[in-house]
Every structure is written in C-alpha cells, then in structure tokens.
C-alpha cells in the first residue's frame, strides 16, 4: 500500500525546519558560555624583565577563575592520565577536609569540579575543632599514579594506594607526632622530602604539639622505606611512618618545596612573617642537602603587595621557578632574578601547578585561577616504579 502525502506532514517538516536551526544556535551560544571563564578583578601581569617573561607568559594573557566555592585551596597537582587520555587538576580544600578534581571537558559539556576524596586529611573526632584539618600538599608517584598527601589533621604524610587505602610514610619524629606536614617533592632517587610547619595546629607555634619539636623541619623519607611499606613487609609500615630523616631545622615556617630540572638543587619557601624568602640547597649524590643560601628575598614583595607569603611552587623545564608569593605568583629565573609577577588582585595564592594544557593553575583562597603560559613542567624523576 502506497502512503500518501498529507498536509499535516508538510507542516511537521516546516516546523522541524524552523526548530533545528534555533536549537543549533542555542547550543552554540551555550557552548561558548560554558567554556568561558571570568577574568579576576584587579589582576594583571607585571613584567619586570619583559624580554624574558614574554617567552614564559604571552602578551595579552589574563588571569581567569575556573572554579570557586571552596574553603581554602592548596596542593595543586596536575594529572595527565595517558591510558585514559584525560587531564585534570587535583587540589586540596584544607578548610573542608577534601580533595577536589577539576576537569575541562571538550565539546558541549564542561565537566568542572567533582569530589575526589572526602576526609582527606583528618578522620578522627578532633577534626571538627580544627580550622585547617584537610590535606595540603599533593604529589603523584610517577607511572603508578598513586597520590601522596600531607595531612594536617592527622599530622602525617601518606600514600593513597590505587585501592583507596592509605599507607603512612611519616608520622613521628623523636617519638612525637609531626607538626602538620605542608608540602612535598620527589627527588631523583625516589626519596620524598617534605616540610612540617605548625600551620595546621590549633595554636600554631604556641601549640603544645609544636613545643615537642621547637622547629618546623624539612624531612626526608628514603625510597627504601617507601618501597618496604608498599611491599607490606613485617613492621615496614611502622618503620616508614615512625622516623623520617631531619634535613633542616632552622626555620619555624618552612613551606613549599621544588627540585630543579636536573635535581641538583632543592628550593625551599620560608613563610616567616619577619624574613619571608626562598632558599636553595645543593643536593648531593646521597640526597643530603648542603650549602644553603638565599635564592630571593620576599620582603620587597611583601612591602609592595601586602597579602601573601612564600608558599607552594613548581619549576618548569627551563628551570624557572613559579612561586606563590605576596601579591600572587612570582616568576624567578634559575639564577634568582625576579622576572615578573602574576598579580591576582589582592587574592592570597597558596600553591601552583604547571599543566600540560598550557596553563599555570593557582590555588587562590576560595577559588582556583589560571593564566596562559608558554612553558611546561620539569619532567618527573625516572624512579619509583
């Protein structure tokens, strides 16, 4: 039986012909809106050495807000999952005891933020009484992708295994619990270095927990102890978590850590209110630190911008240091020359991440910012298989 053309069919076709172009226009404008981020009010790029900074941050780059609604962001870590062909940012919300994931989607939908880990730095009854109980610094183990985190509330450094369980890597020194591990970095031989200021303690440097040590240390957990803990050998977890090696005890407020691209130098941010600065050490073949010296004095930045302290930092493949600083983020050459600033409009920046997508991401108080860059992060060490 042959179907006949009817007038109502023509009306339906005409209606579809009008509807589809309108829907396509709507989706086009929706896509543009979803993938645009507001510029940070009062932000700018200050070019102290333009001929060098222009090769690092392009002219016309703006500081954007990509996520907000957090308590206090920290511990930015870029993840490039080559097997799943996905890239995303992990960061701590120290005030809300969580780790978040931010992922920018392709096509119509922007994936945005999602919860990665709840109770990231504190799991006991004491958590509710702490202002900053969550995880702080985050680090990825190369190739395996396990996350190592500094836990404020539980005052330890742990590695989260791929099955979701946590292995303690550092919990005590000289029989006393650590202050509140803050940031960490992985050496060429696979040792983890971390800082331990009293920022996470209820009364900070006046807290009884700090009095047990009397300093904010820089510590090392050797690769051998990390591997033993992962293998689950008898007593290995206790051994790895009991006594990290003390590398430096001259500061109350040691903060961010980063290695140079060849791992011959270790940079340390000191967020002292009186003498904020970045220092640099030579790293000897056995991992010992030697020849501490001033890398850059932060007092001129503090006087100029007020808000902020030397905090988390990352190093690019050319050896330039991107350091959370008074005013925003300082860009410093390998030789210690201050090349310029990413000024964030009076917003405190606590940490940064150099991402494969061509952006510098910033943990900026209750938000996450980013700015376009022309460089990449230094390669991870070829260790810790």
Average pLDDT taken over every residue = 89
User: Which percent bin holds the helix content?
Assistant: 10-25%
Spatial order of the strands forming the largest sheet: 1-24-23-22-21
Total beta strands = 27
Q: Specify the CATH homologous superfamily.
A: TolB, C-terminal domain
3D shape: globular
Which CATH class is shown?
Mainly Beta
Briefly note the CATH topology name.
Answer: Neuraminidase
Indicate how many domains the architecture comprises. 1
Largest sheet report: 5 strands, antiparallel
Tell me the strand percentage band.
Answer: 35-45%
Termini separation (Å)? 71 Å
Distinct helical segment count: 6
Helical/strand content category: alpha+beta
Structure characterization notes:
It is built from six helices and 27 strands. With 385 residues, the protein is of the alpha+beta class. The protein has a single domain, classed as Neuraminidase (6 Propeller), CATH 2.120.10. Strand 5 and strand 6 form a beta hairpin. Helix 4 runs antiparallel to helix 5. The radius of gyration is 24 Å and the shape is globular. About 3% of the residues have low confidence.
